[in-house]
Design brief:
The protein is of the alpha+beta class. It is about 55% helix and about 10% strand.
Length: about 650
């Protein structure tokens, strides 16, 4: 909350309390016939009971209306008290005009106390008091009908009440400046000092009840107008009364003749007005200087930003919310053959006919899943086409959907990808043939040793077979990772019952001696999920194996199936030592292994979770981990309940399944 708004709310609360307290004390003074309470000071005229009642009702109404969304009963009671304040003010005004202030509510109050109903001459009687109350009542009732940009009826009524109270204050303070003999009309019939001060405070509190609406919104907002208004309005309202009081006090001490009071007052007021104008001009100069500095800093930042974009090694274009090009760097000119002046304001489809959102990543099955971009086809000015990888980033600080598109020519990278695939395939093929031979001969050797009852030599042959299987697994992981990265894997999707699929995986892929540790929790029956069961079984086997490997023996492992939005979510929770934030952030990276993983199993390549990520993302799903040190680990992966659309990318579902 801004500081000015907090001060305004505090002023509103203080106004409500002060009005209630003053009104209550005056009524108690009339009831007990204590002059100090009636006048709130021995030197002031007594406040009439009707005025005290109106202040108490108005303060209570303001206190009840302060909450922005009060309870309905509280709202209705506040409105009723506000209307009662207006009725008291109207009755007091009529009483002052017709009976001279010796009838109406005041007489009824005194008769209720057992007196004759005649108000003493020392009690102030002013039509301005009743007028202020009659205006403040409807203003309190309409306090919620304001608008952030426009003045409301409540503001208008409060402004009139404030002017009436200020008239009474000026009449009380400035009357002696006019004549030293008979008091003028406004001093004769003006409110007492205590009455006018409390009424002005109540009027200000009514304005402050909703600082985000109407007139007060203009004063509290952090704008140039609000800055100037907060400094000038209090001075212009209170300056003349304070000046007049000062001159009267000097006159009473004999330091100023009567003839000099009014000219001196006018001179000081004129000088004060000129001073206010100069102060406002100085404030505007300070703000203008800050604005110029901010503008210069912004222009410098924009220039650095443009220089950065212009010297970037990749083509970059800035595209607004409508798809129009707002900026293109020099590399974009070179790659596409257009001058940047010819691109500004043109549709980005001129450069990428298929749109910046297109490409294989729309279904999550392209190689860009490993690199973070989308594959698109660009078109040069001469009509030739070029394969591009595009990354879209929102422009920081932009109010609309302006984005920076970073385009990269991937012609060479595609050739390298093809060479890499051929290389990996060739190496894997050349490795598999001798491994198959070694595996066959090792099994024959093991059988021969077993027939000759050479157990020690048989164990050595078994070790050879185990290492051959380990090498075959690593080769298969390399091949699978290469196929998934290349985007040449076609998923064999079939509608499967995911619950039965999990039951089958636990039955088939978990060792019998560890099966009792797994607890399967299924949600309500799900519709059949389109998925490649063989590849998702690989993901599940990887997660289940990790859960067994990195949790204490005998501790349970929970497998849950639930639905979050339009995705099925599977989670595997173990009670191991947990992961550090660094490990959790990099766990699905290629070749990454935690320290515990390297200590427990030195033979792994760190491809299992990476391949699991590629498989899940190929299904347009998402895989993630949640863990804290010493609090176990939960792996999640999600797959859509229906085949994904061809355009939007699947969003992460980082929500724990219930």
């Amino acid at each position: 909350m801004p500081r000015s708004t907090a001060l305004v709310r505090a002023l509103a609360r203080s106004s409500a309390v002060a009005a209630c307290l003053v009104g209550l004390l005056v009524l108690v003074g009339w009831a007990l016939d204590v002059m100090v309470l009636k006048s709130m000071g021995a030197a002031l005229p007594a406040m009439r009971p009707s005025a005290a009642l109106g202040l108490m009702l108005g303060g209570a109404a303001l206190g009840l209306r302060l909450p922005a969304s009060p309870h309905r009963a509280r709202h209705r009671l506040g409105t009723a008290l506000a209307l009662a304040t207006a009725l008291v003010g109207a009755a007091s005004l009529v009483d002052g005009v017709i009976t001279g202030g010796n009838g109406g509510l005041d007489a009824l109050f005194l008769r209720a106390l057992g007196e004759d109903g005649f108000v003493s001459p020392g009690a102030e009687s002013s039509p301005l008091t009743g007028l202020c109350l009659m205006l403040l009542g409807p203003a309190l009732a309409l306090v919620d009908r304001g608008h952030p940009q426009r003045l409301s009826w409540s503001d208008a009524l409060v402004a009139l009440a404030l002017m009436a109270a200020l008239t009474g204050l000026n009449g009380f303070l400035l009357g002696p400046l006019v004549t030293p003999a008979a008091a003028p009309f406004f001093q004769e019939r003006s409110m007492g000092l205590h009455t006018t001060c409390v009424l002005m405070l109540l009027a200000m509190g009514t304005l402050c009840a909703r600082p985000q609406l109407g007139l007060m919104a203009r004063l509290t907002r952090d704008t140039l107008g609000g800055f100037v208004a907060r400094r000038l309005v209090p001075v212009t309202l209170l300056g003349p009364p304070v000046l007049g009081l000062t001159l009267v006090l000097i006159h009473l001490t004999g330091g100023l003749s009567h003839d000099a009071k009014l000219p001196l007052f006018a001179t000081v007021v004129a000088a004060g007005g000129a001073t206010l104008v100069l102060l406002a001009a100085r404030a505007l100069d300070v703000l203008d200087l800050e604005r110029r500095r901010a503008t210069a800093a912004l222009e410098s930042s924009e220039e650095r930003f443009r220089t950065f974009l212009d010297t970037a090694p990749d083509p970059m274009v800035v595209v607004d919310a409508t798809g129009r090009v707002r900026f293109a760097n020099a590399e974009a000119e070179r790659v596409f053959g257009y001058r940047r002046e010819a691109l500004l304001g043109r549709d980005a489809g001129l450069l990428v006919p298929g749109g910046l959102q297109g490409g294989p990543s729309a279904t999550g099955e392209g190689p860009e899943r490993a690199t973070g971009g989308r594959l698109v086809t660009g078109q040069r000015q001469d009509g030739t086409r070029v394969p591009l990888e595009v990354r879209l980033s929102p422009l920081e600080g932009a109010d609309d959907a302006t984005r920076i598109a970073i385009l990269r020519d991937v012609t060479e990278r595609r050739d390298l990808e093809k060479l890499r695939e051929e290389y990996v395939g060739l190496i894997s093929h050349d490795l598999r043939n001798p491994l198959n031979t070694i595996n066959l001969r090792a099994h024959l050797l093991q059988r021969a040793l077993h027939e000759r009852k050479l157990e020690r030599e048989g164990h050595m042959a078994q070790a050879i077979i185990h290492n051959v299987e380990w090498m075959s697994t690593m080769i298969e992981e390399l091949l699978e990772g290469s196929r998934l990265e290349s985007g040449r894997v076609s998923l064999h999707r079939e509608a499967c019952d995911l619950g039965r699929f999990l039951e089958a995986v636990l039955e088939r892929d978990v060792p019998p001696d560890a099966r009792e540790r797994f607890r399967l929790h299924l949600a309500d029956p799900l519709p059949p999920v389109p998925m490649d069961a063989a590849r998702l079984e690989r993901v599940m086997t990887n997660l289940l194996t990790n859960a067994l490997k990195y949790s204490p023996k005998g501790t349970p492992v929970d497998v849950r199936l639930s639905v979050v939005h339009d995705h099925a979510v599977v989670s595997v929770t173990n009670q191991g030592t947990g992961l550090s934030p660094r490990d959790a952030a990099r766990l699905f990276d290629k070749y990454y292994r935690t320290e515990d993983g390297r200590l427990q199993d030195g033979k792994g390549l760190g491809l299992g979770l990476y391949i699991s990520r590629l498989i899940v993302e190929a299904h347009a799903g998402h895989i993630w981990v949640e863990s804290e040190p010493d609090r176990g680990v939960t792996f999640f992966f999600s797959v859509p309940l229906q085949l994904p659309a061809a355009s939007p990318e699947a969003k992460p579902l980082r929500q724990r399944a219930s």
